[in-house]
Every structure is written in C-alpha cells, then in structure tokens.
Amino acid sequence: xxxxxxxxxxxxxxxxxxxxxxxxxxxxxxxxxxxxxxxxxxxxxxxxxxxxxxxxxxxxxxxxxxxxxxxxxxxxxxxxxxxxxxxxxxxxxxxxxxxxxxxxxxxxxxxxxxxxxxxxxxxxxxxxxxxxxxxxxxxxxxxxxxxxxxxxxxxxxxxxxxxxxxxxxxxxxxxxxxxxxxxxxxxxxxxxxxxxxxxxxxxxxxxxxxxxxxxxxxxxxxxxxxxxxxxxxxxxxxxxxxxxxxxxxxxxxxxxxxxxxxxxxxxxxxxxxxxxxxxxxxxxxxxxxxxxxxxxxxxxxxxxxxxxxxxxxxxxxxxxxxxxxxxxxxxxxxxxxxxxxxxxxxxxxxxxxxxxxxxxxxxxxxxxxxxxxxxxxxxxxxxxxxxxxxxxxxxxxxxxxxxxxxxxxxxxxxxxxxxxxxxx
Length: 424
Hints:
Helices cover 24% and strands 53% of the residues. It is of the alpha+beta class. It has two domains: 41-235, no CATH class; 276-424, no CATH class. The chain has a 25-stranded mixed beta sheet that branches.
C-alpha cells in the first residue's frame, strides 16, 4: 500500500512538474521578443487599431497600453476610443470549454467619442449581454463579471456631429450579470450647461438604461433628478430635474451672457429628446436684482424712465414648454415695488429670436416722473398706476419693441430744444 501511494505521489509530482514546465514555457514565450514582434506586426495590419505597448500573462491577465480604436459603424459616423490602459483578467480553465470568462475589464483614463446613432446600434447589439452578463459568438461563450472605468471622458455627438453631452472625470463600476452599477462624473456638460459632482446608480435592461436618483450641483446649487435612455427602435431619452438655490450669475456666465440678473434660481423641468427636444418646466429667482438687461435698458431710454434700468425684484418667475425648436413662455413675471413686467411669448431655439407680448405697469410715483408726451402713451389704471402693452421682437441682446417711436422722438426733440436754450 505504501509503495502504491509513493507511485501515485511520484506521478502527481511528474504531472505537476510537466504542467509547471508547460505553463512556464508559455509564460516565457508570451514575454519573448519574438512573440511581441509578431503581435505588433499583427496589430499594424488592423485598420483603425493601435496599441503602443502590451503585457500578456497567464497569471496577471492582459494589459494594453496606449490603445486607440477608430471604427465607422454608420458611414463617417462611428466610434473613437483611446485609453491609457486596458486590463482584462481571463480565467484559464474555461477556455478549454469554449468559454471566455473575464473576472474584470478595467479602463484607465479612456477618451471615447460616440455618435448618437452608433450608441443606439451598440445598445441594441449588447442588450442580451446587459441582461445576463454573457453573449455567444459561434460556439464560444463570453462572460464578464465586472467592468470598471477610472477618470474617463465620454462625448456623445448628435445627428449633425455636434457635441450633445460630455462626461469628464468619469468613474464607473458595473456588474453585468446584475445589469447595475454606480456612476460618478466630475462634470456633465449638456450644451453650455455644466453639472458637477454627478452621482447616480445605473441599471440597464431590455434596451433601456435608467439613472435614478441623480445627485449633483448646478451653479453651486443642489440638483436632483432622473434620466432614462431608450435605445430600442429609436434613440430617446427622458430627463427629470429639480434645482435649488443655483447662482444665477454663474448660470448666465456658462451661457456666455453678462451677469445682469442676480439671485438664487429654483426650478423644475421635464425634458425628452431624440430627433427633437420637447418638455416643460418652471423657474423662479429668489432675492433677484436686474441691472442693465437689454430690454429694460431699451425701455428706460424710450420711455425716459431711468428706474427701469435697475430693479429689486419681489417676484421673478417663468413657466415654459418646449416643442418644434421653440420655447413657449405662457407666464413671464418680473415684479418690483414700483414696476411690473408681465406677459407671454415664444423664443426660437434655432436663432434666439423673440416673439413676446408684454405689459409694463408703472407705479403712480414713477409714471408722474415721465415726460408728458410719454405719459400719454400709458393707460391709467383704476389704482392710479399706468400701463403700456407692447410687442417684442429681435433677440435678447438686440430687442425691438413696437412702442410709438414718433411720440418718443418728439419728446426727445423737445428735451433737446430745452437743453439748447439753457446752454445759450
């Protein structure tokens, strides 16, 4: 019996030694110059694929450094991908059963540019994988346990190849078998708007990705909401957002506008997009001040009422709906103690043109200080205040109004004549 055990032990040691020699030989070959030269030659022959360095090990997995991939999935539209490092950790034994099992794929500092149409195609093709964490090609089965991204950048292009949204400082941890994970981004840019310190759980199923609840900051104010992206049949997204105490001057600067309006913004919006943008919402500004807004400055000049240039606002709010590249504003209210501006209108999202019908109401004290001919343009109210209704066209920076310019001109000429007589 002892002799038999010794024989078994010797055979085991021989087999283990042979396996060790084979594995060691394979590991040595994977790090040999000849193998690396063969791989580099093969990658050079693959169009749209480049890798600067790599490390392949039976024990440490596969690491590709300086990886870059460019593919055209929709004519000239497609995918651009580059990363400092891609690491994949395969399991060896399942390979003998036509099964590729990856414990993890991790990306360090990836930079990805993706066309919105390509995103929909990729989402449809990987729908089954998102459900189960595995997919099949021929008689091979592929399985992934974990996918991670560190310090990444993702840019999504719209149908005209213009940036639709961009994520910077992206960290992502996804477990495909559970179709869920966690996302963090230092900055999310949607057009000119920047949402910072974004955090959200991510869940994918049946061609749909949900992020809820979303938490971040917009112009130093807390932001919450949810995002759903649907890729089946057509690419669509729905966004619910709630903002509190966002700094209005910061928001205006993000859009390249001077900070002529100040205060803290409170707002809610429900938006939906794909081929077109639609939605609705409302915003209001607490503790607001308005100084030098182009429309108010124009009114101050035409009506010779300096008080219109600088307003301390008791109420400032707007309700809006978006459809067919237009923003409708059925409610516009800017209210101070002595001046009110209310009305409704439409703003073109294509060229920024205005189509507003507004009413300006001056307190009796302010109205009494206006020149006589100007005062005749104003309609006296029952409470002694005076009102003027008018139409606004042009743009935000260069507004036009249909106020009787002849009366304003006559008043200006009369004032100029008085000044000339005084000087002489």
